[in-house]
Amino acid sequence: MLKPKYFLYARKSTEDDDHQIMSIEAQLFELRQYARRENLEILEEFTESKSAKKPGREKFNEMMSLVENSEGVGILAWHPDRLARNSVDGGKVIYLVDTTKIVSLRFLTFWFEPTPQGLFMLQVAFGQSKYYSDNLVENINRGFRQKIRRGEWLTKAPFGYLNNFKTRTIEPHPFHSKVVKRAFEEFATGKYTYESLADFLAELGVETKNRTPLGKASIWRMLSNRAYLGLTKHKGEYFEGSFQPILSPAIFEAVQIVLKRKAKPRKSKELHNFPFRGLLTCGECKCAITGQNAVGKSGGFYRYYRCTKKRGACSQKFIQESVLADQLKARLSKITICDEDTGKMLKQVEIWENEQTSSSQMFVQNSKQQIQQVQDKLDKLVNAYIDGDIPKENYLTKKEELLKQKVQLAQDLENFGRTGKNWLKPLRAWILETKKAAIAANSKNLIEIKEAVQTVGSNPKLFNKNVVLEFAPLWQKVAEILQKSGATPTCRGGGALQETSKNLQSSLWWRCRELNPGPKLINFSIVHKISQLKYFDATN
Fold first, then answer.
1. Could you tell me if 497 and 538 are in contact, meaning their C-beta atoms sit under 8 angstroms apart?
2. DSSP annotation of 288
3. Where are the alpha helices (DSSP H) in 334-444?
4. Are 176 and 250 in contact (CB under 8 A)?
5. Band of the pLDDT at 276, cuts 50, 70, 90?
6. Using alpha carbons only, what angle is made at residue 251 by residues 249 and 252, rounded to the nearest 5 degrees?
7. Which of these, 69, 65, 72, lies nearest to 103 by C-alpha position?
8. DSSP 8-state symbol, 271
9. 95-99, 212-216, 237-241: the lowest-pLDDT one
10. Is residue 440 a contact partner of residue 455, using CB atoms and an 8 Å limit?
11. Average of pLDDT values for 298-310?
12. Does residue 346 lie within any of the structural domains?
């Protein structure tokens, strides 16, 4: 009988060049040395960097195809687990041994003979290899589950964080975390595109390896990464993390709103020439109001706005941009407060900031109760999912919503416990917004006018060439106060304001006290505190 000729097969499990670098090289050296020592003839060598847990390895299939088309060949490998860790490939090897396509199997760490007992031991070896692979996956998943329960980050830290190998989690980078926070704050203003924000980050030293600004996809991934809220993600599901968040939920949600608005890109750069485009809807058919260029009878160039009429016939006519701007400024003037009055309010805020404020036990107690209620809902949701009462899609959506509520409540409680006066920041921000609205009411900058309307207005429409603008609830109260006072947009005062300011407390407190202590209650705090300012006091 002629001595069989052999195919040599060496494999490592990972395709990553940085892992198991010496594995294949070491196998080849040992196998070649063994072949020389045993005087074995090698027909061809096959090397592969791929897991054998599932069928489908290219080099292995190529070698097995040659074996099937040959007569009386052998295979030389380091161990049976190099050939197969799954039942399909292992069964194929055993079948070819049964049909004498493979007349010899040689392993450096395993002895095999082509006898019934030898085939049985080969099956055991393949079974052990499969068991090892399956058990390894379970052990890894168990470790992942434990890390998730501890709130640890599972992979390489995202930009803005550093891996702390002692605590096995991540922590904010001293510099990059501030860059991330600045990027979110800038993008939330709505003034940046992906490209301009990438240029802004490049100025701060955040670039690609080739020293070019980041791409659109990289910017989008950063701006939508919930890791900055202190959440960790595993298999598409979010969990609470034990690491420090970089962003507040408020600024993160503001950025998500801008991302949704930019999800439908404009078709032409010329559309940027219409500042009020996308601001209004038609009061008749509810279609969008778009801008258009035109040339007048005298040959002059002007811009106007009209209904897109995408839903059919609409009787609404166009309106010139200058007329539209005047109407918007007129609406803004109804909530305009003069600089002297806003100065008084800011001064009062500074007094409150310097005073020692005691923590509200009711607020803290309510916040803790609501956090516990959200946690109870999470526990019930998980139990319902485990019992199979709800589908996975509904479970993931509801879980993410509850996690965001819990993060928001926990941060509100932390801020309140740290300062005891977390209503002052939104109060100051609101007062500064009134200054911006006042500037826009007298401005020729159409972008400033649009931004001011978007801040104070709600659902602006255009009907019969007239702007119909509803103020947001807080701004509507201010408009009512100013209207009852009968004052012009100069410095005001008067008895009518005192009565209205008292009504603010009685009309809003009972509506807001039952709501979650989130933005809505803070809005009430703003109104309530404004009603205490000297500006709203008839004795001023």
1. yes
2. B
3. 339-354, 361-386, 392-419, 424-441
4. no
5. confident
6. 60
7. 72
8. G
9. 237-241
10. no
11. 80
12. no
171: which strand partners? Answer: 162
Q: Of 261, 290, 307, which residue constitutes the final position of a domain?
A: 261
Please give the mean pLDDT across all residues of the chain.
77
d(CA 280, CA 133): 61
Residues 10 and 114 in one domain: yes
Provide the residue count of the chain: 540
| Token reading at 253 | 């949600």
Q: Answer for the pair 192, 200: CB distance below 8 angstroms, yes or no.
A: yes
Residue labelled with tokens 């007062």: 431
Give how far Cα 79 sits from Cα of 82, 123, 250, 479, Å. 6, 13, 57, 82
> Within this chain, do residues 204 and 81 fall inside the same structural domain, yes or no?
no
Query: Between β-strands 41-49 and 5-12, what pairing exists: parallel, antiparallel or unpaired?
Result: parallel
Model confidence at 397: pLDDT above 80: yes
Co-location of 228 and 286 in the same domain: no
- Number of separate domains in the chain: 4
pLDDT tens figures, 156-191: 888 989 988 877 788 899 888 999 999 998 888 888
Query: Quick one: pLDDT at residue 532?
Result: 46
Domain harbouring 138, CATH code: 3.40.50.1390
How are beta strands 319-320 and 301-307 bridged, if at all? Answer: antiparallel
* The pLDDT of residue 184: 92
> For the chain, what is the largest distance between any 2 Cα atoms, rounded to a whole number of angstroms?
118
For residues 54-74, average pLDDT? 89
Q: Among residues 86, 80, 131, which one has the least CA distance to residue 102?
A: 80
To 10 degrees, the CA torsion angle through 164, 165, 168, 173? 10
Q: What are phi and psi of 479, to 5 degrees?
A: -60, -40
Same-domain pairing of 497 and 393: no
Which pLDDT band, with edges at 50, 70 and 90, does 416 fall under?
A: low
The verdict on residue 349 lying in a domain is no
Is 348 within the bounds of a domain? no
Q: Report CA-CA distances (Å) from 391 to 235, 251, 284, 397, 405.
A: 16, 31, 41, 10, 21
Residues 450 and 508 in one domain: yes
Q: How do strand 301-307 and strand 457-463 relate by DSSP bridges? A: unpaired
Domain closes at, from 87, 119, 146: 146
The pLDDT tens digits for 17-38 are 544 545 788 889 999 999 999 8
Pick the closest to residue 11 from 74, 75, 66, 78 (CA basis): 78
Q: Residue 80 in contact with residue 11, Cβ under 8 Å? A: no
User: Could you give phi then psi for residue 535, rounded to 5 degrees?
Assistant: -60, -35
The amino acid present at 292, given as its one-letter code, is Q
* Residue 453 domain-assigned (yes or no): yes
Count the Cβ atoms, other than its own, within 10 Å of residue 156: 8
Poorest-pLDDT segment among 136-150, 312-326, 448-462, 507-521: 507-521
Q: Which of 53, 93, 49, 58 is nearest to 75 (CA)?
A: 93
Residues 11 and 106 in one domain: yes
DSSP assigned state of 193: -
Strand, helix or coil for residue 46? strand
- Choose among 88, 9, 20: nearest CA to 43: 9
Domain identity same for 257 and 300: no
* 53 shares its domain with 202: no
What is the residue range of 327's domain? Answer: 269-339+427-536
